[in-house]
Write a structure and sequence with these properties.
This protein has helices at about 1-10, 30-35, 45-55, 85-90, 90-100, 105-115, 140-150, 155-165, and strands at about 15-20, 25-30, 35-40, 65, 80, 120, 135, 170, 175-180. With about 180 residues, it is an alpha+beta fold. The chain is about 40% helix and about 15% strand. The protein is globular, with a radius of gyration of 17 Å. Strand 1 (about 15-20) and strand 2 form a beta hairpin. Helix 3 (about 45-55) packs across helix 5 and helix 3 (about 45-55) packs antiparallel against helix 8 (about 155-165). The protein has a 3-stranded antiparallel sheet with strand order 3-7-6. Strands 1-2 form a two-stranded antiparallel ribbon. Strands 4-5 form a two-stranded antiparallel sheet.
Amino acid sequence: QTLAALLARQQVQGSMVIASLKSGQTFVHDDVRAGQRFSAASTFKILNTLIALQEGVVAGKDSPFKWDGQVRSVANWNQDQTLESAFQRSCVWCYQQLATEIGAQKYREYLHDIGFGQLQEPFNTTTFWLDGSLQISAREQVAFLGQLYQRRLPFSPAAYDTLQAIMLVEKTADYALYAKTGLA
């Protein structure tokens, strides 16, 4: 009820899914919305990073992206990047470069094999995760994250290790918080 009040105060709709890997217990706010598919948007950068690493398009968190000099609306995109900074800053042009190198067929294969949401055909290889061609529900996202955490997806240990390193947001003696920001 507190979450519902917060969302109402901000005049936004939202859902939340919290699932325990140990007990299997799941808490859901707005069950109907949690099952609806929406654009994957920046959350796709989690899987996209793994695919790029697995396919050898990038070698690690320090893999460079050379800025093309084109000024974009997000100030911290207007400079050279690394895979780590591109992920943390949600740098679209960097991931569009990766997408061009990965190619549509590889994306089809990975999305199908992993069962990541629904991809509408035809799709634009450099925008499908942004333009609504790839949609996924909150429930599907949480299931994907569970598989990711348990390393049950078809990626190398090195790919998992690199992703884990760049997703780390905060670490204390008691916990580590891994996240991906985004807005759609």
